[in-house]
Write a structure and sequence with these properties.
Number of domains: 2
Number of strands: 6
CATH topology of the largest domain: Chitinase A, domain 3
Radius of gyration: 33 Å
Helix content: 40-55%
Order of helices and strands: HEEHHHHHEHHHEHEEH
Number of helices: 11
Distance between the termini: 40 Å
Strand content: 5-15%
CATH architecture of the largest domain: Roll
Shape: elongated
Strand order of the largest sheet: 4-3-6-5
Largest sheet: 4 strands, antiparallel
Length: 300
Amino acid sequence: MKVFALSVLCLGCVLAQTAAPQAPPKAAALPDLAADTKIAAFDDGTVMTMGELRGILSNLDAQQRQGAVANIQGFLDEWALLHKVAQLALTDKLDQESPIKEQLLYARTLVLYQAEVQHQGNPTKIEGDEVDQYYAGHKEKYQQVKTDAIYIAFSNSAASQTGSDGKKILSEAEAKAKIAGLLEQIRKGGDFKKLAKENSDDETSRAKDGYFATLSPTDNIPDAIRTAVFALKTGETTDVIGQPNGFYLFRAEEITFKPLSEVRDQIYQTLKTERLEKWMAKMHNETKAKILNPALIGGK
């Protein structure tokens, strides 16, 4: 085990020495050789191919990988040492002794598990009509609502004081009463844009006659606003929506949907994720361990 640790340490030294070369004019790169090209041989006659080398290097982080490529002879010398000592361990049948055999079992099982999950998460083909059907069945996910807004701010701590704009700062109760009155006017046919321009405390939207934003369901907005806005039909106004420092009214000026061409790749990824989740759920439901000795779980 000391020899193994020393070998790993030496490999790390090679990587460290080459990981950050002094201002290289160009990043080192492997030659463009076919995967089955034989590129190195070791003492026991084992031959490494270009594909195997690339696979080994893929397990390193970017800095280590660059260092190895920059000093490929040094890296392969250290790998030859690891390989030779590992083969000696097999000759000594250390892979059949505890705790080595359990460590190998765990590592092999984990690597194969991860490989199969990745395989299941990358289906060979998702038909185009699957994407079309998903879009048609989940069109609300791609809804866009062009919104106008009125915002009435409040501050209980500074209520009745005058702000920098010369306007009286409202208490929460005063702000709620004001916006409720504006909503009543709108319900009776009042011009939302005009009322926003005259009353809203949101300077940005007020300057645009109340235009707030074109919102999508996935936008990072409070749930109360998301729920209210995406329940609207064109021309409708929400009820009063309370937020920590003020109250909102939103009006749906226009409702559209992102075209399929814009979300096709997104849907493709969604379908891949759903397939993997479905497969994982199936595997979980079908897979149980049978306890052969009750003492393991506290039984007699």
